[in-house]
Amino acid sequence: xxxxxxxxxxxxxxxxxxxxxxxxxxxxxxxxxxxxxxxxxxxxxxxxxxxxxxxxxxxxxxxxxxxxxxxxxxxxxxxxxxxxxxxxxxxxxxxxxxxxxxxxxxxxxxxxxxxxxxxxxxxxxxxxxxxxxxxxxxxxxx
Length: 142
Hints:
Layout (H helix, E strand, L loop, with lengths): L1 H36 L2 H7 L4 H14 L4 H13 L4 H13 L5 H8 L1 H29 L1
Helix pairs in contact: 1-4, 3-5, 3-7, 4-5, 5-7, 6-7
Protein name: Permease
Keywords: Membrane, Transmembrane, Transmembrane helix
């Protein structure tokens, strides 16, 4: 009996992996396309002013360009590599997965306008707060 359940579980896992593989490959290809279309000079000019402004810009970009968490990690790594500050990248990643300006109309229809707006505002402020807490904690730890 346990052997049969194990076989069934392994078969379901393999099927899920095969079904997700094209999505992951497509997502990585789209992310690499986005990174090449977003030149380093643009990111260097957009970021690098102050921690507060960088976190606001990062959270704003992440709010508008909402997406899958895996994509945000790849994009965040590329932005860090091109010289964007950790606080901006952290705010971008957190807002990328928690704030959804693009999905706001659908969310307002499903959950009500008041809830959708409050949730997005709270998540936006939280993204900036988390970015500061994360970066300053890393600075204290060393």
